[in-house]
């Protein structure tokens, strides 16, 4: 697993180098969202408001919302609507209720058309008011009713007592008698008014006067999730999954990126590193098959998890690196001999570097030439899945050329074992890296200094100087 920190530059590199693939994945996600919208028909939602006059506590309002969505209310609403195949249990998923400010219960209904949604909300609201009013009337506290009836009897008894007192009072027209009768009549009037107000202010009577605040509004738009929302959600989901997949693959990558790790896997010595001009295009293998064309179209034929190639110096500076590798190779060998330049298949950077190395080995103007300097080199491609190196014939050794971060330790170990099976000693390793070449001047350049444009395959040779 790679321990590199996932940074914003990594995300930006994914967007920049995989934008075609990400765009296609997002389109596929949008199509999946569209398909999901076909499975779920459009729904429309509207609400009807019911006013609960009087003083209500929050828990009482919560109880009323539960009553509004109870099976009794929904069954009555389904029976009244008479929709085919729609029962009260099915309406439970389509009807909801919540308490709003001002003692208002909002009853929302969802249906497949605006008209049915409006009818559903209005009908459930009406059934709720009817059922809740009956509950309030039926559940009036019997003790309170008995006390109220006893109070009426006491008031009637008091009125009779007042009448008896008034009749027993001095029938004369004295001031005291007139004043006594007046006070008794005032007491009778006050008792009657108190009883009337007590009956009018009864909690059951007050709370039973629920009112539906007009018909529900006909919805003009679909209820979420709409088809467009499903398409956008599908595109975003697939896009994020693609990005996360890239990050996970890079995090779990076992490709070797450092020269010591590569040298340890091949059990040989690192001779040096060389530069290959071409930048991002250097990572692209040349293959005319339809599958390769599709990979190029999607932009997945190149590595995205490699850093942006740095700007290289001039060609002379790059050739110096190749000459130094050839010099170290001469130092490794006791005498000039023929060597195989082993390049893993699909590693375009390494292939170009091997061709350039063969050219430098054959054109090195060293004074020690005349078949006594650089070894003769032949480039061979080796499959990493089933590595097979030509048997030892005229060549007696192998030089492995590869790019950093292209192969795992197991793959490199397989190449080393294939060389050993063919009785080739791995005399050295060359690591190639892609760079961005600066504009070059064509004047004053001899033809043999130019880098070969094409690989020469298995027959690429460099003569000794």
From TrEMBL:
The keyword Magnesium does not apply. Keywords: Cell membrane, Coiled coil, Membrane, Transmembrane, Transmembrane helix. Residues 4-56 form the Polysaccharide chain length determinant N-terminal domain. It is found in: Cell membrane. Residues 148-201 form a coiled coil. It holds the Pfam family Wzz. It is a multi-pass membrane protein. The keyword Coiled coil applies. One of its GO terms (cellular component) is plasma membrane. Residues 439-465 are annotated as: Disordered. It comes from the Bacteria. The chain crosses the membrane at residues 21-40, 228-249. InterPro entries: Bact_polysacc_biosynth/exp, LPS_length_determ_N. Its main location: membrane. Belongs to the CpsC/CapA family. This is Polysaccharide biosynthesis protein. It comes from Streptomyces phyllanthi.
């Amino acid at each position: 697993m790679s321990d590199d920190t996932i940074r914003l530059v990594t995300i930006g590199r994914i967007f920049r180098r995989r934008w075609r693939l990400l765009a296609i994945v997002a389109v596929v996600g949008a199509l999946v969202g569209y398909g999901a919208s076909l499975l779920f028909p459009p729904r429309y939602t509207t609400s009807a408001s019911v006013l609960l006059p009087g003083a209500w506590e929050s828990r009482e309002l919560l109880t009323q919302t539960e009553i509004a969505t109870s099976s009794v209310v929904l069954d009555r609403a389904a029976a009244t609507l008479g929709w085919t195949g729609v029962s009260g249990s099915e309406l439970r998923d389509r009807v909801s209720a919540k308490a709003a400010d001002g003692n208002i219960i909002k009853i929302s209904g969802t249906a497949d058309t605006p008209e049915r949604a409006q009818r559903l909300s209005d009908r459930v609201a009406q059934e709720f008011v009817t059922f809740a009013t009956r509950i309030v009337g039926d559940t009036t506290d019997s003790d309170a009713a008995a006390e109220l009836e006893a109070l009426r009897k006491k008031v009637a008894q008091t009125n009779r007592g007042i009448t008896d007192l008034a009749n027993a009072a001095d029938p004369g027209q004295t001031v005291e008698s007139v004043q006594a009768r007046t006070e008794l009549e005032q007491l009778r009037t006050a008792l009657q008014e108190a009883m009337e107000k007590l009956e009018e202010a009864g909690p059951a009577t007050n709370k039973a006067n629920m009112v539906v605040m007009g018909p529900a509004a006909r919805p003009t738009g679909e209820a979420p999730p709409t088809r467009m929302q499903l398409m956008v959600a599908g595109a975003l989901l697939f896009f994020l999954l693609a990005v996360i997949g890239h990050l996970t693959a890079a995090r779990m990558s076992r490709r070797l990126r450092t020269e010591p790790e590569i040298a340890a896997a091949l059990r040989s010595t690192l001779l040096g590193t060389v530069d290959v001009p071409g930048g991002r295009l250097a990572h692209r293998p040349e293959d005319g098959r339809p599958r390769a064309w599709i990979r190029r179209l999607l932009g997945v034929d190149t590595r995205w998890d490699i850093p942006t190639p740095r700007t290289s110096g001039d060609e002379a500076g790059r050739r110096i690196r190749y000459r130094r590798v050839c010099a170290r190779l001469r130092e490794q060998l006791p005498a000039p001999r023929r060597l195989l330049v082993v390049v893993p298949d699909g590693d375009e950077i390494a292939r170009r570097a091997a061709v350039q190395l063969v050219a430098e080995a054959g054109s090195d103007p060293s004074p020690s030439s005349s078949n006594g300097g650089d070894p003769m080199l032949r480039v061979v491609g080796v499959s990493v899945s089933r590595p097979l190196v030509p048997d030892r014939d005229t060549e007696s050794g192998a030089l492995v050329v590869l790019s950093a971060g292209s192969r795992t330790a197991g793959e490199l170990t397989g190449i080393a074992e294939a060389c050993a099976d063919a009785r080739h000693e791995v005399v050295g390793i060359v690591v190639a890296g892609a760079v961005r070449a600066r504009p070059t001047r064509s004047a004053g350049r001899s033809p043999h200094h130019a880098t070969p444009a094409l690989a020469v395959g298995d027959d690429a040779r460099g003569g000794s100087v």
